[in-house]
Amino acid sequence: MIWWWADQSRARAEKAAFVALQEEHDWLTSVRIRHLANFQLCVDVEIVHGGEKFPLAVIYPTTFPDTPPIVLPHGELRLSDHQYGPGGELCLQWRPDNWDPSVTGAMMVESAHGLIVGERPSDGGAAAVPSEHRSSLAGELRFETWRLMVPEGAWASLDGQLPEAVLEVSLTITARRTQRVAHLRSIGAQGNEVWISPQPAPNAPGRRTGFILRTAQDMSVLALHVGGEFDDLAKRVPELASLLERPEWPFIIVLEKTGRKTAFDIVRSKAGHPFLVPYRIVEEEELARRSASNRESVSRNRVAIVGCGSIGSKIAASLARAGVRKFLLVDEDIFLTGNLVRNELDAWAIGWHKVDALADRIGQIVTDTEIDTRRIALGSQTSALGMESTLESIGECDLIVDATANPTSFNLCAGAARRHRKPMIWASVFGGGIGGIIARARPDKDPPPLVTRNQIATWCDDHETPWQSETGNAYEMNRGDEPPFIADDADVSVIAAHTTRLALDILQGGETTFPHSAYAIGLKKAWIFEAPFDTWPIDLQPTGTWEEPASEHDDQDIATLMSELLDENPL
């Protein structure tokens, strides 16, 4: 769409504004309107100040008047400190962040004139115009393709070290096309580190050995180097001479007493000389509190995730972000390409067991994890010993999450929860993604899991159950001649997110925020759901008893029972 054709009155008004501006001010000596190759309007103007001429181009973008005109000099000139590099756009009074569509191109030229006059006072000196530019870290790094990420606390670990020192460091490096990001992982030789990064390590990274050069000397000869060949590096910076004698040249971080910090990767040029690749140091601040969860309480608990498919994988990742560090992951499946459509995992996991890939995924989110994995499906054809061991491990967890939607698995998890008196949560997505059900069973607060499930089934029967899948695919639902409903990642994510909130409510302890222990959540207008996000609480009746904890017995009680059971006296 050509804006000046679609809004011809605005185009005429823009031209009239320039004519009026030139008639009113003698500093505007020339105005010429032309079009560029793509039919963009361009107004060439000339501003005169202090006997100097400033030719500018005012280019109207195709998105005008929703975005401002672009004002820039002719040629690769640096006219102002408020400019995006030589020949670049001037940063004026009106910018994309405060743009008003009523502002004209002529008003932009007035702003440019004010900037030129402000930086060039009549006495011939230099002056600075106050900046309203608010930069962000992301904006500053937009064109910094080589970066070194330094976690909070790394530099502080050097406070007790010698002022003149060379310390070994380890780094991991990730690459994306022409960009490189190095991550500082530790300071100090292996086994004798003075600092180890508390942050998750990037997946499948390159590894690099480097050194911190801590010095009170002025290292400008190195710090101000723009990158490229540095033939006499060892001579100019003697502190690096011994490091350059190594077969592999190192990554260097220079910390000067003045506080200046610079980083370079030293590689060999084609001629065999040191070639410096400068890295922009990005110091990460301490992670802000970004979760409403009581992380200290949550981190003490161990959670069993039974079923690491679409729902289970999402729940596990969300719980890790909320503070859970101890997991038992149970699933026998292999992650296949078809699982990418709804699972938390990505292409790196294809071909791996889901439990192993999910354990790696959690390790990419948080550190200090304790994760056990069991490549087994509850109720499958496996050894009785392996099944018993898995069920006992599940029962020893502080919370059991069944995300299999499999009756056999549910029954076994329910038995473990009842025997060990542990809370249990489960979730399922209705065929076609029309909604789902989430539920919990807490010892002595809710009916036992099997009783709870039966009450939910009765509740569903009372409302009929037309969502039953006829395709054999739990995520699809045939609708006769109409297109089938298919649950996508968004549908599964909604149910998984609600299940996670239910889990955190238990893990944090205290008064629950959920007045009911089971909910039917609608995602489409179907069955009883009047609209997406139509939620139906399910009332549970306090029937059934949880397993009573075994009372303590002395040796005589045990001996008496064994004598009744065994043919021989054990004692």
From TrEMBL:
InterPro entries: ThiF/MoeB/HesA (IPR045886), ThiF_NAD_FAD-bd (IPR000594), Ubiquitin-activating_enz (IPR035985), UBQ-conjugating_enzyme/RWD (IPR016135). Residues 292-431 form the THIF-type NAD/FAD binding fold domain. GO terms for biological process: cyclic threonylcarbamoyladenosine biosynthetic process. Gene3D superfamilies: NAD(P)-binding Rossmann-like Domain (3.40.50.720). GO terms for molecular function: tRNA threonylcarbamoyladenosine dehydratase; ubiquitin-like modifier activating enzyme activity. It holds the Pfam family ThiF. This is THIF-type NAD/FAD binding fold domain-containing protein. It comes from Rhizobium leguminosarum.
